[in-house]
């Protein structure tokens, strides 16, 4: 048997590569589309439920549901890698879906804003476990040569679903109200995603063992504490990626909570807000089909730096204007910049991590990245309450530009091979 495959059971073999594993890869893309759709049901509608149905005037209180989501998702990410290595990838994926099943029902029936906050805590667990596993399993399947492509396709499926669902919920809300009709989509996503994960998805630890067998061995086992320190601050590449991931999702958390309120303050209707909220993640999702493979060919650093600066430009443009057309351009720039950054960061973390602790390193990176949701929503809410919505957007834009500069100064290009 060649070194590209290893016996898994009688009559079967494990092989690395997209072509060799396209059926499972495609199924994982479909599952991640449903994972993304669970977030998409909230992008347009939920920030408007607070002031319109519960009479909440504080921007900080309105975005509190994103804070609960971000903190819990970050913590779920942190444990997902360890659980994946001990329990197996598929079990963690299924667990994520089981936790997510109640979410749309809680939002539909919520008698108070506290219910929405609690639902988003469960959604954070769902996203932290389920989305993490779709990333880790795809990286396991394709091997080291196509990590950027694998991540790009994964994030394409997830964030295209976010965008499409944001548009659909805005359309449905303009005709049937903010609840319950737009949230029915979430029930369908949760049920189908759970069924597919239980019945059709297979674990990928055999692929991980194959890659590890061909990789230089660690001189000694590495603890989770050591992985956390390496990914957070000790390794310059991993630190650069972690801080950029945090700031990337910090501006995403801000846009999630602040943009609908900002656009509505100029009299924009919920259907057109839905269009703007859809353009950003849809552009982000679609372009990752291109930017993921480009990071394999061109390298990670240049795409990350340019992407962070383009995001900053989109945010500055949004804050400085008051017309739908300019906001549309700002959303497109934000989506383009994020598409350049997102798969490149995950691939850069994978490049800098040994296969034996890659899942744990990715979980630490995703902990810092998704903690950005909470930090972005909370800080933007506080700034908006004190200085106005436009000032909140401008502040986050400046921080995004600074983060790109940190990557330009610290990150060193590494070969994924």
Automatic annotation (TrEMBL):
<feature type="transmembrane region" description="Helical">
    <location>
        <begin position="25"/>
        <end position="41"/>
    </location>
</feature>
<feature type="transmembrane region" description="Helical">
    <location>
        <begin position="302"/>
        <end position="320"/>
    </location>
</feature>
<keyword id="KW-1003">Cell membrane</keyword>
<dbReference type="InterPro" id="IPR011701">
    <property type="entry name" value="MFS"/>
</dbReference>
<keyword id="KW-0813">Transport</keyword>
<dbReference type="InterPro" id="IPR020846">
    <property type="entry name" value="MFS_dom"/>
</dbReference>
<feature type="transmembrane region" description="Helical">
    <location>
        <begin position="326"/>
        <end position="346"/>
    </location>
</feature>
<feature type="transmembrane region" description="Helical">
    <location>
        <begin position="116"/>
        <end position="137"/>
    </location>
</feature>
<protein>
    <submittedName>
        <fullName>MFS transporter</fullName>
    </submittedName>
</protein>
<keyword id="KW-0472">Membrane</keyword>
<dbReference type="Pfam" id="PF07690">
    <property type="entry name" value="MFS_1"/>
</dbReference>
<dbReference type="InterPro" id="IPR036259">
    <property type="entry name" value="MFS_trans_sf"/>
</dbReference>
<feature type="transmembrane region" description="Helical">
    <location>
        <begin position="92"/>
        <end position="110"/>
    </location>
</feature>
<dbReference type="InterPro" id="IPR005829">
    <property type="entry name" value="Sugar_transporter_CS"/>
</dbReference>
<feature type="domain" description="Major facilitator superfamily (MFS) profile">
    <location>
        <begin position="25"/>
        <end position="415"/>
    </location>
</feature>
<feature type="transmembrane region" description="Helical">
    <location>
        <begin position="61"/>
        <end position="80"/>
    </location>
</feature>
<keyword id="KW-1133">Transmembrane helix</keyword>
<feature type="transmembrane region" description="Helical">
    <location>
        <begin position="149"/>
        <end position="171"/>
    </location>
</feature>
<dbReference type="InterPro" id="IPR050171">
    <property type="entry name" value="MFS_Transporters"/>
</dbReference>
<feature type="transmembrane region" description="Helical">
    <location>
        <begin position="183"/>
        <end position="201"/>
    </location>
</feature>
<keyword id="KW-0812">Transmembrane</keyword>
<feature type="transmembrane region" description="Helical">
    <location>
        <begin position="390"/>
        <end position="411"/>
    </location>
</feature>
């Amino acid at each position: 048997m060649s070194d590209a495959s290893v016996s898994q059971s009688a009559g079967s073999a494990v092989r690395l590569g997209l072509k060799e594993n396209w059926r499972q890869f495609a199924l994982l893309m479909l599952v991640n589309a449903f994972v993304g759709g669970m977030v998409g049901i909230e992008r347009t509608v939920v920030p408007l439920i607070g002031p319109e149905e519960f009479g909440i005037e504080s921007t900080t209180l309105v975005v509190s549901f994103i804070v609960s989501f971000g903190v819990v998702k970050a913590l779920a990410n942190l444990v997902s890698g360890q659980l994946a290595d001990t329990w197996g990838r598929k079990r963690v994926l299924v667990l994520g879906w089981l936790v997510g099943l109640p979410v749309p029902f809680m939002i539909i029936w919520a008698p108070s804003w506290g219910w929405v906050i609690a639902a988003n805590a469960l959604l954070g667990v769902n996203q932290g476990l389920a989305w993490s596993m779709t990333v880790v399993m795809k990286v396991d399947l394709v091997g080291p040569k196509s990590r950027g492509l694998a991540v790009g396709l994964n994030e394409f499926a997830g964030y295209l679903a976010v965008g499409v669902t944001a548009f659909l919920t805005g359309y449905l809300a303009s005709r049937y109200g903010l609840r319950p009709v737009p949230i029915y989509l979430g029930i369908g996503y949760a049920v189908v995603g759970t069924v597919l994960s239980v019945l059709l998805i297979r674990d990928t630890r055999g692929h991980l063992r194959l890659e590890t067998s061909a990789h230089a061995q660690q001189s000694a086992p590495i603890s989770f504490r050591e992985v956390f320190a390496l990914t957070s601050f000790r390794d310059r590449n991993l630190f650069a990626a972690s801080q950029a991931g945090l700031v990337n999702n910090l501006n995403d958390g801000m846009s999630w909570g602040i943009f609908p309120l900002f656009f509505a303050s100029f009299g924009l209707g919920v259907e057109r807000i839905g269009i703007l909220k859809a353009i950003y993640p849809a552009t982000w999702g679609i372009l990752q089909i291109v930017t993921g493979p480009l990071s394999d060919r061109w390298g990670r650093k240049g795409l990350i730096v340019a992407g962070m600066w383009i995001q900053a430009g989109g945010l500055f443009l949004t804050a400085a204007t008051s017309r739908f057309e300019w906001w549309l351009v700002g959303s497109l720039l934000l989506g383009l910049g994020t598409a350049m950054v997102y798969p490149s960061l995950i691939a850069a973390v994978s490049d800098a991590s040994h296969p034996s602790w890659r899942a744990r390193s990715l979980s630490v990176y995703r902990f810092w990245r998704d903690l950005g949701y909470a930090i972005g929503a909370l800080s933007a809410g506080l700034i908006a309450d004190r200085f106005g919505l436009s000032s909140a957007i401008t502040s986050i834009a400046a921080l995004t530009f600074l983060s790109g500069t940190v990557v330009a100064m610290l990150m060193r290009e590494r070969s994924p091979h």
